[in-house]
Amino acid sequence: xxxxxxxxxxxxxxxxxxxxxxxxxxxxxxxxxxxxxxxxxxxxxxxxxxxxxxxxxxxxxxxxxxxxxxxxxxxxxxxxxxxxxxxxxxxxxxxxxxxxxxxxxxxxxxxxxxxxxxxxxx
Length: 122
Prior knowledge:
The chain is mainly alpha-helical. The protein is built from six helices and two strands. It has helices at about 10-15, 20-35, 40, 50-70, 95-100, 105-110; strands spanning about 85-90, 110-115.
């Protein structure tokens, strides 16, 4: 990846091109926090084929949209942007217990249990 994604749509496009989703999302978050703009969240990302990633991008749009602009992009609430079964970012029982408590609401409602630092940057 030779650029910093300026939208969640571009994060998904990087993923589809074979780039690391984690790296693309981290770079996006750096840009977003530097200068938050609603339009960075509004355009629906293409489906990547990885359901957890697709739901994670929706949860990111929901959490950032709610916290910064008081609105959630419509696409983030589409049914295919929610997991049917819970997904945990931790494999240990203690990690899972922590995730159940600490996960931000936008992730929790999509059955993504990842802890409180999912969208934090240093």
